[in-house]
Each structure stands twice: as C-alpha cells, then as structure tokens.
Amino acid sequence: MNHPDPLQPHSHEPNPQPPSADANFTLIAPDGTRHTIAPPLLRALPRVVVPGCYIVSTGHGTSGPFAFGGVRLWDLINHFVTEEWEQAAVISADGFGNRVWRAELEDEHKRPILLADEIDGKPMGRDLGLVRLIVPGERDDALRQIKWVGKITLKR
Ligand SMILES: Nc1nc2c(c(=O)[nH]1)N[C@H]1C(S)=C(S)[C@@H](COP(=O)(O)O)O[C@H]1N2
Ligand SMILES: [Mo]
Predict the structure, then answer these.
(1) Whose CA is nearest to atom 17 of ligand 1?
(2) Which of 5, 73, 88, 155 suits 82 as a labelling partner, its CA being 20 to 30 A distant?
C-alpha cells in the first residue's frame, strides 16, 4: 500500500511483496541533481559487513541475527555529494519511508547505517528487500529497516 506521506508516522505494514523487479534507486542532492544508482555500483564502493542485526517486528516477531553486507550510507552520499546537507529521506518504491540524520551517520561509535545488498554472505534478492536500508540496533518494530529503497533525498 502507498502512504500519503511516507515520512509521517505510519502503521506497521510488513509488506512481503516487492513493488517491482527494478532494484535501481535515485540519490537526489540538495541542489536537485539526480544520481541513478544500480546495485553493481554498490559492489564497487568500500564495503562493510555488520553482524548481529535483528529485524524486530511486533507483527510477526523477531528475525535474525543477520550479517548484512553493503555500503555505508555515509560513504555512498559522500561519493556523489559534496554540498552541505542535514537529513536524508529514504523512501521505498512502495512508499515506506524513514529520515536519517547526518549526525547519525557521522557517529563512528555506532554500528554503521548501511544500504545492504548481501545477507549472511549471500546476495540479497528482491524478495528480501534489495536494496535495503539497515539501521543496526533499531528496536522500533523495524520501522527503519526500509526494503526496496527507491529514492534518497538530501535536504539542508
Ligand atoms: N519497503 C518497505 N519496507 C519495510 C516495510 C514495508 O512495508 N515496505 N515494513 C517495515 C516493517 S513495519 C517491518 S516489521 C519490516 C518487515 O521486515 P521483514 O519482511 O524482513 O520481516 O519491514 C519494514 N520495512
Ligand atoms: Mo513493523
């Protein structure tokens, strides 16, 4: 289902159904410049693996621990954007969204927020959320674990 404003609080809809087969997404810089990012590009950037991640859902219980592999959101943004920005709106192709703050990504003491394309050492399929935002340590019923990222919009 599509939410009118994906960044407003919304109900838990653990949509199991990929909205499309296309795993490309768009990064939009604060000046409006658009960068299309296809999964092979993620494999060419510096990689991380974050073990011990849980998808905590009130609806259907907790799954994990998983080791998610991919690219730090911080590294992806810095690869394309040099302008100042403060927040990143991460919106899925099915209209689910979450806001990530620059300060969260800068914090080196936290496990990194990443764009995952691997799960437990295997390529992540579209069925499992490719490309999926993973916020390690999030316990708010998986509201930040955005599957099928479609658009990341940076704002000052
Ligand atoms: N794109 C997208 N991501 C989403 C959702 C969704 O409906 N669409 N639901 C969220 C919620 S509320 C839950 S509980 C989890 C479910 O994740 P799972 O399918 O890995 O169990 O995905 C989160 N990410
Ligand atoms: Mo959820």
Answers:
(1) 14
(2) 5
Q: What residues have CB less than 8 Å from 4, skipping those under 6 apart? A: none
- pLDDT tens digits, residue range 5-34? 788 766 677 788 999 999 999 999 999 999
For ligand 2, the distance from its centroid to the CA atom of residue 97, given in whole angstroms, is 12
For tokens 């911080």, the residue is 74
Give the whole-angstrom CA distance, residue 147 versus residue 153: 16
| Pocket lining for ligand 1, CB < 6 angstroms | 12-16, 55, 57, 59, 63, 92, 94, 96, 141-143, 145-148
